[in-house]
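We close this part of the discussion by returning to an individual protein. The encoding preserves chain order, so positions in sequence and tokens coincide. The sequence in question and its structure tokens are set out directly beneath this paragraph:

===
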Amino acid sequence: MNQVRRWQRISILALLSVSVIAPVIFVSNRLKVFTSIGRWDFAEELSTTKFRAENIRLNAIEQEADEGLKEPKLVVYKDEDLGSLVSYSTSTESDTKQSQNAGDTNILENNGTDEGKEENKKMKQKTASSGSRGKDQTNQAGARRSPNVQASLLRVSDEKIKEMKDQVIRAQAYLNFAPPGSNSHLVKELKLRIKEVERAVGAATKDSDLSRRAFRRMKQMEATLEKASHVYPDCSAMATKLRAMTYNAEERVRLQKNQATYLVQLASRTTPKGLHCLSMQLTAEYFALQPEERHLPNQQDLHNPDLHHYAVFSDNVLACAVVVNSTVSFAKEPEKIVFHVVTDSLNLPAISMWFLLNPPGKATIQIQSIDNFNWLSTKYNATLKKENSHDPRYTSALNHLRFYLPDVFPALNKVLLFDHDVVVQSDLGRLWNIDMKGKVIGAVDTCKESEASFRRMDLFINFSDPLIAKKFDVKACTWAFGMNLFDLQEWRKRKLTAVYHKYLQLGYKRPLWKAGSLPLGWVTFYKHTMALDKRWHVLGLGYDSGVARRDIEQAAVIHYDGVMKPWLEIGIAKYKGYWTKFINYDHPFLQRCNLHV
């Protein structure tokens, strides 16, 4: 019994020893294998690193030895330039191989025998000659191809988009061949393809904007058009249909342009709701005042000829406020400024109330109504009824009041007249010291063809009339209203108001000029105009979105001439800031009327 137990113990211990020792032996063998592999990999990596370091060092030496070689510029080529790309890569690879061979040759020269040196010298000469030939060929090929490559890079490709649009036009032409009400398989397919292509193109402007699906739609449309060409093979009928479609499209474009022009003109003549509200609020406030509270201060200086007198004729409250505020804010001597604002009886209370609430600092201001000029009713209103224009800008008495300045200001010698759509950006005191040289009006000319403000006499005046052709030169330099300095003494001497009346009456009898006061100004002040520096008055902010920012910021006065006034929604947005900064939009009346920037 004891012997059996002993054998059991021996067998158990043997099994335990085997189970413990066997894993230890197995793991040790595996570790030995991994260690040998790791050592071999490390040695191999170390030798590779050493070889790379030697290569880098040799390449650096080779580049220093040959300073003429430069790395080619990286250029993105298109598919059509694939041939040039392949030739370029081939020559580059050959140059790289040659440089490596040259590097190997240098090693042999340093470490080999004399025979090896001679052989290596020969190899080096061959390599250098073949490398120079390859380089010359590459440079010549690059010189031949570079203009085309640069042109293709600069040009944004939209050929596929144009082709897809042409497909739509052709499909629409084929649809017009089908009988009215036709619902054939081809008609349905054409309509479907048109919708698919139009959706695929969407708002894309270049080929890179198109998706892969768009190109599939293009191929499907081409297949459908091929079918249609077999059904409708008559080319002459197709040409006729396309001409008719072109004509109809041009007519629609013309009508759309006319409609857009009409709507812009309508918007320019319409008073915005906020401005109308402001006038009503100010008028109500004005009539709530006692009569003695309605008087503006400093009225004793209104006729002092030694002061600087500015005039603006307007029925727009905010426009007058901007002209006055901008002029006074930049004036070095605001106490010398006298502003004369002339409006109509309807807007007199509102404008008066505005300046009672917002006096112009040290400057003096006078508000008058044109309806109180009793002398004007006999001279002007009788002829005004004959004006053949419905545009209030042309028929308004305020617009033509500029030709009666000596009568409006009988005690003054000089007046600077503003249109109400200007903004002053610097001190204008130097203008009053300009020598007028016997001229009546100082103005900025508009006779340079390279400028957007260019105006030609024959665009506004009818030179086919013998009287006009005899008295005026069609090539005479034109000028602009908006900011003009008038010498009233010279005006009175030359009796130019009578000249204005003469041409005004002639214009009623036969068509001599377009409606408006500008052509009348050109003929009235013909040869009586002195040109001012361009920087005094920059035009175009009411119609030209391309006026240079530098010109605007250097200008003494900027003018929103045109229909896109800064107080209208149709005004050019990027120019509005020059105007709005002179209005306090936190003013209670503006807040009440929802007027904001």
